[in-house]
Specification:
Largest sheet: 5 strands, mixed
CATH architecture of the largest domain: 2-Layer Sandwich
CATH class of the largest domain: Alpha Beta
Order of helices and strands: HHEEHEEHHEHEEHEEHEEE
Helix content: 40-55%
CATH topology of the largest domain: Heat Shock Protein 90
Structural class: alpha+beta
Number of helices: 8
Shape: elongated
Number of domains: 3
Length: about 400
């Protein structure tokens, strides 16, 4: 299992564990809410029965007892007749009254009908009414009630709790990821610069040996020329590593010429079963750091070569958009293709389909294009079994026939 797959499996495991905790919390809270809701309905029924006994009893002691039972209930309730007229209330705003006290000579309190009607409508939406037959008066009342403040708070509590936990975990994950990426970048920069330093000595020795070979043999010998090209290539690689961690200097170059130089270098070092084709506009000029941009092309072309099994074709096309001042570099191959679900995944560090791969090539390519060249790179199109096209987008491009040579 490669590091990316292992990292992905850990993420899924932690997510599953978090879902289990959240589900357990919600289920247990739901269980408590159901129990309290049943308890409150029972209390509402007890209060309704107490009111019934109050209306049908002449025993003062029993009347006092039932009033006490009524007052001990914390469940807000409203009693209406079958016509919907309010008869009694319980547990509502004590500053309001459903009795028209003006008729009794008390004009300090007003009858707030809209308040009680809105409360009654809310109670009707929450629970079915309790029917209450009043003995002796041949009446039937409807008792409506709503959840107490405690039950309402308990219903919303798990969502508030989970939201707070989610925000905390998100902030913690963001801080941890930022710290981890910073550490990884420091390690990567240190390793890159140390590698460049270590390569310096053997490259200098190889250059000296090649000069000696030129003196003893023909200077134009094809083997010596190719060896010299490879040593120069090693110099470029060392220069690339030395630039990691610093802001590279971008210079204007014709994109077509830079790409053509590298393709010509690369094509003679891969199998002859793979053909190369370069097309496009030769007059597009963009700011490039050539050693780093060559590294980008190298990673894309190597990726294309590895994707081709047997014979195949690699096509590089360069086009531009004058209005947006952009240049598009499309690298297409006739390889095995990439599933659509993996279009973003291929740029993740550690992702690879090769047994011996490190999964860093496309990740570094994305970093060099986005961080150093202020551009974009993405999978433009791919179909399993037919091939893939990667697109590089560079900005601030102009059209000019006169520019710096490589």
């Amino acid at each position: 299992m490669n590091p990316y797959q292992q990292k992905k499996r850990w993420k899924y495991s932690l997510l599953t564990f978090a879902v289990i905790i959240a589900s357990g919390s919600l289920l247990y809270t739901s269980y408590l809410v159901r129990n309290i809701a049943r308890s409150e309905r029972t209390r509402a029924e007890v209060w309704a029965m107490s009111m019934k006994q109050i209306l049908s009893s002449d025993d003062n002691d029993f009347l006092n007892y039932t009033i006490a039972v009524r007052d001990s209930s914390l469940v807000p309730a409203i009693v209406t007749d079958l016509k919907g007229d309010i008869q009694f209330t319980r547990g509502l705003d004590p500053g309001k009254t459903h009795i028209k006290l003006e008729a009794e000579g008390n004009k300090n309190k007003k009858y707030d009908l809209p308040y009680f009607e809105s409360e009654l409508a809310y109670m009707k939406s929450q629970h079915a009414p309790i029917r209450l037959k009043v003995m002796g008066n041949n009446l039937e009342w409807l008792v409506y009630y709503k959840d107490s403040d405690l039950l309402t708070q308990l219903k919303f509590f798990p969502y508030i709790q989970l939201s707070v936990i989610a925000i905390f975990l998100l902030l913690a994950y963001t801080a941890f990821s930022s710290s981890r990426k910073s550490e990884q970048n420091q390690v990567w920069v240190g390793l890159a610069k140390e590698t460049a330093h270590q390569l310096g000595t053997p490259i200098s020795s190889l250059m000296a040996w090649i000069e000696l070979m030129k003196e003893r043999f023909s200077e134009n010998d094809s083997l010596i020329v190719e060896m010299e090209n490879d040593v120069k290539r090693l110099e470029i690689v060392a220069d690339r590593f030395s630039k990691i961690g610093s802001t590279p200097k971008l210079e204007e170059h014709k994109v077509y010429e830079v790409v053509k130089d590298f393709v010509d270098y690369f094509r003679v070092r891969v199998s002859k079963n793979i053909g190369f084709e370069l097309t496009g506009n030769p007059h597009l000029v963009a700011g490039l750091n050539v050693p780093l941009f060559d590294w980008v092309l190298e990673n894309l072309l190597k990726n294309a070569v590895n994707a081709i099994e047997g014979k195949g074709q690699i096509h590089v096309d360069i086009s531009g958009n004058k209005i947006k001042k952009q240049v598009f570099i499309d690298v297409s191959d006739t390889g095995k293709g990439i599933p659509r679900s993996k279009f973003d995944t291929v740029f993740q560090p550690g992702y690879t389909t090769r047994k011996r791969g490190w999964g860093l090539g496309l990740s570094l390519t994305k970093r060099m294009i986005e961080n150093y060249h202020n551009g974009q790179i993405f999978v433009k199109d791919s179909e399993v079994g037919k091939g893939t096209t990667f697109r590089i987008v560079l900005k601030n491009v102009r059209y000019d026939k006169q520019t710096k040579s490589r």
